[in-house]
Amino acid sequence: MMKILVLNCGSSSIKYKLFEMESKEVVAQGGVEKIGMKGSFLKFTLPDGQKVMLEGEILEHRAGIEYILGVLLSEKYGCIKSLDEIEAVGHRVVHGGERFNSSVLITDEVIDILNECIELAPLHNPPNLKGIYAIQELMPDTPQVSVFDTAFHQTMPDYAYMYGIPYSLYEKYGIRRYGFHGTSHRYVSARACEFLGVPYEEQRIITAHIGNGGSVTAIKNGKSVDTSMGMTPVEGLIMGTRSGDVDPGAVSYIMEKEHMGTNGISTLLNKFSGVLGISGISSDMRELEAAIKAGNKRAMLAMETYNYRIKKYIGSYAAALGGVDILVFTGGVGENQFVTRRDVCKNMEFMGIELDEELNASVRAKEIVISKPTSKVKVVIIPTDEELSIANDTIEILQKG
């Protein structure tokens, strides 16, 4: 029985899933939160669906991973007798720069390159690396695989990833569009074709991964040709707390008027903008919907602006692809918020999108076609499964090696 552990290490959290690969079954899952803060805890779900929370002082990532491994081995909650049962560990790594266009077995050389990529993703890559180092120490003989958020988008043509800035800055610092959520876009686009029974290599697909973070990707014949996130995950759609596209002139104007430095403006655009910034209420769509029902004007504005930006990107990617065959909704909002799907698809009949509004309003978080039978474009919901995708890549690389 082959088991793969998937880790997703954030700045103050670690999510994990343990897969039994023959059946693709999740045998254990959970996460550590508030690492290095007061009130840190490990929360996990037992096979019978019961949730367990263990509080403890978890000061850094290594301690968090030790805690997770301890629970996996424990008599009361565990599902393995020895760490040797874990064949490999797959890590989600946010930024692979231009060096990685697919998942790789982690070696010292790979770790050196990941350290070079820290500048590109200062918030994400350091915790990703901490997870890798912790497993090296705690399970030194277990192979590790790195699966990159940016890798799927490395097939973008140069004219799609270049910015209109001096070329020397691209050569010097690698400033260009990289795109993120690649593992999700790759998984749901391939899965949609499987679900619809059409060949992946012959489709024009637009995938909308919309949750607290969000991005839209144009996929032609199985390859990403454009995506809305940029050098960092701030560009593109309006998100929960991120601004998405903003006039760079407006950014320097805010810095001047508010006497802000680079850290201040980065925090403003990443943490206090987006749906939260416009509504002044919350970055959570459920809270926003409640406020809209209560007649809150700014909540309405936030929702309309959010949905409109998604619609605009879908339209522009239809142009980039020369038409669309499949539109996929995924992510927390894409899978659950029928209002966003409805508003994004409204008046898109000219593009071949005809939504079945009744069906759309009645479904959440399951694989289903929500367009009318007459619709030229198949509109589908495909719940994303990045962890399974990471586990699959990990197995593939082990078997190659």
Automatic annotation (TrEMBL):
Coarse class of the primary localization is cytoplasm
Obligatory cofactor(s): Mg(2+); Mn(2+)
Query: In which pathway is this protein known to take part?
Result: Metabolic intermediate biosynthesis; acetyl-CoA biosynthesis; acetyl-CoA from acetate: step 1/2
| Cofactor binding mode and count | Mg(2+). Can also accept Mn(2+).
Q: Tell me the residue numbers annotated for binding substrate.
A: R92
The record lists the catalysed reaction(s) as: acetate + ATP = acetyl phosphate + ADP
* Alphabetical list of Pfam families matching this protein: Acetate_kinase (PF00871)
Q: Site annotated as Transition state stabilizer: where?
A: H181, R242
Q: What EC number(s) are associated with this protein in UniProt?
A: 2.7.2.1
Query: Could you tell me which InterPro entries the record lists for this protein?
Result: Ac/propionate_kinase (IPR004372), Aliphatic_acid_kin_short-chain (IPR000890), Aliphatic_acid_kinase_CS (IPR023865), ATPase_NBD (IPR043129)
Task: For this entry, list what GO says about its biological process.
Answer: acetate metabolic process; acetyl-CoA biosynthetic process
Q: Which residues bind Mg(2+)?
A: N8, E386
Which key words are in the record?
ATP-binding, Cytoplasm, Kinase, Magnesium, Metal-binding, Nucleotide-binding, Transferase
Binding residues for ATP, per the UniProt record?
K15, H209, I210, G211, N212, G213, D284, M285, R286, G332, V333, G334, E335, N336
Assembly and interactions?
Answer: Homodimer.
Q: What is this protein called?
A: Acetate kinase
* Species the sequence originates in: Proteiniphilum saccharofermentans
Higher taxonomy: Bacteria, Pseudomonadati, Bacteroidota, Bacteroidia, Bacteroidales
